[in-house]
Structure formats: structure tokens, C-alpha cells
Amino acid sequence: MAENGEEKLIAVARHIAKTLGHTDNAMTDDILQIFSNFDGRLREKLNENLNDGDDSRNGVAALDQTLKSLDRQISRYVTVDHPIWSDSADASTFLDAVDELVAAIREWTPMAADKAVTACLDRAEDLLQQCMFRLEEEFKLLMERGGADPFENTDGGGGAYVDSDDEEDNDEYDEAEIPVAHPVSDYNIIIDALPSGTINDLHEISKRMVGAGYGKECSLAYSSCRRDFLEESLSRLGFSGLQKSNAALEDDDNEVEIDKWIKAINMAVRVFYPSERRLCDRVFGYSSSTAAAADLSFMEACRISSMELLNFANGIAMGSRAPDRLFKILDVYEAVKDLMPEFEVLFADQYCLFIRNEAIGVWKRLGESIRGIFMELENLIRRDPAKAAVPGGGLHPITRYVMNYLRAACSRPTLEQVFDENVVPPVGVDRSFSPSSPLAVQIAWIMEVLESNIEAKSKIYRDPALSSVFMMNNGRYIVKKVKDDELGSLLGDDWIRKHVGKVRQYHVNYQRNSWNKILNTLKLDNNNLSPNVASKSFKEKLKLFNSHFEEICRTQSTWAIFDEQLKEELKLSVNGALLPAYKTFLARFLNIQDIAKYAEKHVKFNVEDVEDRINGLFQGTAVSGSGRK
Question: What are the Exocyst complex subunit Exo70 C-terminal domain coordinates in residue numbering (predicted)?
Fold first, then answer.
């Protein structure tokens, strides 16, 4: 308690002394000395405080002298109009002065409660700020000067200083400019656009700026220079940025711009950005204290170019879902998908996470667009109207278009990956069909929509036989395109067998609707008729045969069968059914009494004539419109 009382008494004495002495420290000390003469108990305590005061004054005086000395040194450098780093000795001296200034500030900051110390620290902070401004300027000059030469006389995205992983060997490359090979086929390379000596100088500056609390300013200085480098590199690859590229795409969605973009994003994500990440780490160091500055610098350097590249892909995804855009979107989808591992690794820190997430979002939207195109293809098939019939029952353009489209689409392995999600079979799909994948479900459904559309178009034909030929042509074309193709692997053998059976049934329907009527005229009566009655009956049947046969041959000679094998099968089938019956009929007819001498009058076609006329069927053009078969 007594000790606490003495402390309070001393504090009161000091307060009175300071109040009387105002700001004059010497007067304050004299007054405290007088107080100590009144009571010996205060002498020891006050003397201790007076001694402490002397030490403090001496320390502040030393700090003041240090700051004056540093001010003279530093001012000589911060005011010069030429780069400090043009002379390595000047750069080293300036950095030593900065280090000494930072050390003084750190040493005296805990004593900032003292007004004299605070005044010195304020001066020191002002001086430090001048140092940081000059260091930032020098940093930018080094970045610009170091990155200038490699751009000249190079192709494919700017030049580079090849940097060895072995730091001891770096010096031999300091003076040598080694351009990247063009075109680049191997992306497993790392380049530095700055020489090793410049990188070391930048590291020394960044270390001081980050240590002094100016890490953000250093990061912005770094990124402002490197951002221009990356954009210039991409421009040299033909990618002119989002606005110009989208303007070109709006004209005709041309493949040239997409090809340029694919080249640019591959170079950016596989070469430029990894190289930039490595350069950032070398400039700012690998310690935990500088990690945030390195991450921020990398993000700011890559942000604009990476977002422009991704926004280009996003514009493709958000565009029209017309079926003819599928292959362009697939190209873009494949490019983004192949680069996702690099996006995951490069942009994983807190600053870059939004770039990685945007890449994932663009990738997903491209997949949604591709799936949406197949839905639009369904709608296109449904909306295709049953207007005029295809002449001769030939191949309908919608069948040719859809089958060639699906064959080309399914030749892209990526397409199956796009559909590899849980997909419920569309309502109405054939439940007896067991698809092997979600893509197979989609293809099977489109095939059903196409078949329904073709069946509706077949009803335009008034002649049932011609309707069967139309269905036969289109059904055979579908089966032929599916067989021995990726479509066949997706749809499976059961699907193929089922549709081969459908084509066979159309064949049967054709023969029944065309030739059964003629075959009926050739049927022989088993009744024992008198010669006169039999002669009259045979003459009538022969007359009907001649009329029907000539009419069918004249009509069906203009019909079309696109597949030569199918055409021959049909002719053989008709010959096989008609010729034996006609031979038998003629033999019976010519055996009738007194008929042989009038045979030429009634027999218009001999057997060879019938065969020739059948072989002249189906001479029409099988494919309506132009395009691939």
C-alpha cells in the first residue's frame, strides 16, 4: 500500500511539474528536483525517473540524428531524374538506407506514446512513403525495361527468356534472347519474359515494399505491366479481345474466330499463365509473408485476359441453339474441358477463385447449350411440314439431313461425355429399347421423332404402294447410316434388327399393293369349262393383265429407289412372283383349242418382255434436293 502511495505521490509531483513547466523538459526536471528536497523518501524515486528521462532524451536525440542522416541519403536518390537501378551500387546503397529506416521505425514504434518519439516516427513514415513511391516507380521501370526487348522479332505471343530450373545456370541466359518456337505444339514449357537479373532486382524491391506494408501497391505495379504483356501476347495469336471477336462472330459465327480463340486460350492457360505464376513467385518470393502479394499480383495480371477468353466462350454458349452450331460449340466445349485441370491448379487461391468458378460455369453452360441443340433438333423435325410429296417416293431431305447430322455428331467422343448425367428417357420413347448411355437415349428419341415425321409424310401419297416405297427408301437409308457407325454402337444390334424388319415389312406391303392385283388376274379356274367359255375367260384375264401390267410399269418406272441393292432385291422379288404365274397362264391359254392361231392378237407381252419391263422399274431420281447421300 505504501509503495502504491509513493507511486501516486510521484505521479502527482510529475503532473504539477509538467503543468508548471509546460513543454520545457529542462524546467520540468528542475521542479522535480525541488520536490525531492522536501522529502528524502521521494529523492530515490524521482532520481530514477530523472535518469530515465535522460536516457529517453538521449535516445530520441539519437533517433533524430539517424533520421536526419537517412533523410540526406534518401533524398539524394528519390529526387534524381534517372533510374536508380541504372547503377547497381546506387541501388544497393538506396536499399540499405530503406532497410535502416524500416528498422528504426520498428524499433521505436513501441515507444510511440512519447510525443518526441511520435514526432520522429511521423517524420520517418513520411520519409518511408517517399521511399516506397520511388521504389514503386523503379519497379515499374524495371518491368518495362526488362520486358521490352523480348517482344521484338518474335512470333506467336511475344518473346521469352527461357529460364532454367537450376538457378546457378541462369547467368548464361541473361544476355541471350531465345524465342518460343512457332507454331507451338508442345505446351509443356515454362517461359519468363524477364531476364533473371531483372527478376532478382524486382524481388529485392518487392521484399522491401511488402515488408513495409506496401504489398498492395507493389502488386498493382506488377500487374499493370504484366497485364499489358499478356494482352499483347494474346493479340499476336489473333485474339483481339471480347468486343472485336464478338463483332466478328455476329456476322457469320465464323470458324476463324473460334480457331483463333482456341489457339489463344490454350497458349494462355498452358504457357502464359503458368509462366506468369512462376514469375510472380520469383518476384515476390515463396514465403508465407509474401504469398498474399504474389497471389494478388497473379490475379490482377491475368484477370482481364482470362475473363475475356472465358466471356468469348460464354457468348458462344449463350448464342442461338440452331442445330448447325453444334460442332462449333463442341469445339469450344472441348477446349474448355481439356483446360479444366489447369484452371483448377492455377486459380485455386482466394484471389483467383472467381476465375476458376467462372471457367466451371462456362464449361457447364456450353454443355447445356449442346444438350439444348438436340432438343431444338427434335423441334425442327416435328415442325418440318408434310407439304408436297417427294417425287417417286424417294429419300426425303429431312431424313438425309438428320442422319448425316447424327453420324457427324456421334463421331465426336466428347458428345457422350456431355450427356453423361442422369437423364430420364423422354415420354414416348420405346421402352423395349435398352440404351447404353444418356446419349443413346437422346439419339433413340430423335430417331423415333424422325420416323413419326416420315410416317406422317408417307400419308400424302394416294397410292399405298408408293407410300410403301417412300417408307422403304427412308427406312433403308436410316438403317444403312446406323450400321457400321458409332450410331450403331449407341443404338445396339436389337434396334438395328427391329428396323431391318420394318423395312422388310414395307417391302411386303409394296408387293401386295402393287402386284397382288395382277397376280389375281392370272389365277386359273379349276372348273371343267367348255372350250368356248374357257377361251372367253382367258381372253378377259389376259386383257386385264395387259392393261394392269402396262399401267404399273409406266407408273413405277418413274419411282425411285436410292439403294441399288434394294432396287435389285425388289426387281428379283417381283420377277420371282410374277414370271412363274405368267408362264403357267400363257401355257394354259395357248393350249386352248383354236386359240393358238389368234395368240398374237391377245398376247401383248411374252415372258421375256415382262422381265424386261420389270427390270425397267424405278428409274426416277431417288434423292430429293441437293446434298450428301
Answer: 260-615
19-23, 297-301, 503-507, 534-538: least confident range? 19-23
Local structure of 395: helix, strand or coil: strand
The Cα angle at residue 369 between residues 346 and 331, in degrees rounded to 5? 60
Decide: helix, strand or coil at residue 161.
strand
Residue whose C-alpha cell is 457468348: 315
Is 476 buried (19+), middle (13-18) or exposed (0-12) by CB count in 10 A?
buried
Residue 566: closest CA among 622, 624, 496, 482 = 622
User: pTM (2 decimals)?
Assistant: 0.76
Instruction: Look up cell 464478338; give the residue.
Output: 246
What percentage of residues in the chain have a pLDDT greater than 90?
55
Element (H, E) at 125: helix 115-148
Confidence of residue 513 (pLDDT cuts 50, 70, 90): very high
Q: Say how far apart CA 191 and CA 180 lie, in whole Å.
A: 8
**Burial degree of 548 (CB within 10 A; 0-12, 13-18, 19+):** middle
Long-range contacts of 122-128 (CB under 8 A, 24+ apart): 123/67, 123/71, 124/67, 127/67, 127/70, 127/71, 127/74, 127/101, 128/98, 128/101, 128/102, 128/212
Of how many residues is the chain composed?
629
Rounded distance, CA 34 to CA 31, Å? 5
